[in-house]
Amino acid sequence: MKSTIDRRPPLSATELRRQRERIDLDANALELYARVVAAGSFAHAARQLGLTRAAVSRRVAAIEDRVGQALFARTTRSLGLTDAGRQLARRAQAVREAADAARQGWRRGAESLEGLLRITSVPSFGVHVLMPLLRGFQQQHPGVQFECLFTDRRLDLLRESVDVAFRITQMPPLDWVAQPVMRFRIGAYGTPGPALPDPQALAQQPLLLLGGATEALNLNWLHDNGGRQSVTVSPALCADSLDALLTVARLGGGVALAPDFCAQADVEAGRLADRLPGWQLPIAEGNEIQALTLPAAAAGVKARALVHWVSDALTASHTAQFKPGVPDA
């Protein structure tokens, strides 16, 4: 019976180190080899790569071990290429050039206003305010594409790969930065007619409310002079769409509670009127649209440019009676 004892001599320290550092001849190895060849010496290559001379020498030795041939003809004064080294250098240089081109392309894409921007917004702001502004932004930067998701749902912004979120919130998600872009008022809009004397009069009106519950609720109104008044109402109709509520209001079906920017076009056209002028309905989340992005270092130039564009356009409107504007290019 033959012995199973391995009688091969133990590996030397150098052989053990080479075995540990044995690498696949992948793009990283070929790029390193090309840079060593271009540098002309291990020391110069080490300085360019931010490595020690010994680390570069070990990696080159691992590449030679992988191909099974010497790549460099070393003397005490110079470093030349063997025939195998020249053949591999041509292939490695092509890999290096492709890697450099990919890096430059990525930097240009990251620093230029082109490519996809994924945006989410509450539907009312997205439809009535954001869409005209996106069109203006795209005219200035035709290389930018938009993917828009208009929803009231609270999305996981990172998981959904969102670049900019326009939300009504006083507590942005952790690690996201909020920038106010527009204040708004919630008013009571119905077909033109005499103004209601005060919020208490809403109790006698068919009320149209956003949401899914028709039970009685208490509304706390604020007047421009600082006065406050509460009223308990029972909605005549609830819906999850402000545009649907305003459609019913235009047909004379009741008074819709809606943000001013949703009703503004109807007010200007004479189809609707603010039935409680001077009064507004504050909400717990705050009457302000916030633009949410990742911190500046991670947000990307396109996201920052869009927020700046939207903020400038809305600031230029000067009033809460919103008309989408186009900022100076």
From TrEMBL:
Keyword DNA-binding recorded: yes
GO molecular function: DNA-binding transcription factor activity; sequence-specific DNA binding
Keywords, ordered alphabetically: DNA-binding, Transcription, Transcription regulation
InterPro entries for the chain: LysR-type_TF_proteobact-type, LysR_HTH_N, LysR_subst-bd, WH-like_DNA-bd_sf, WH_DNA-bd_sf
Listed Gene3D superfamilies: 3.40.190.290, Winged helix-like DNA-binding domain superfamily/Winged helix DNA-binding domain (1.10.10.10)
GO annotation terms (biological process): DNA-templated transcription
One protein family per Pfam: LysR_substrate
UniProt domain HTH lysR-type: residue ranges: 25-82
Assigned protein family: Belongs to the LysR transcriptional regulatory family.
Protein name: LysR family transcriptional regulator
The species this protein was found in: Inhella gelatinilytica
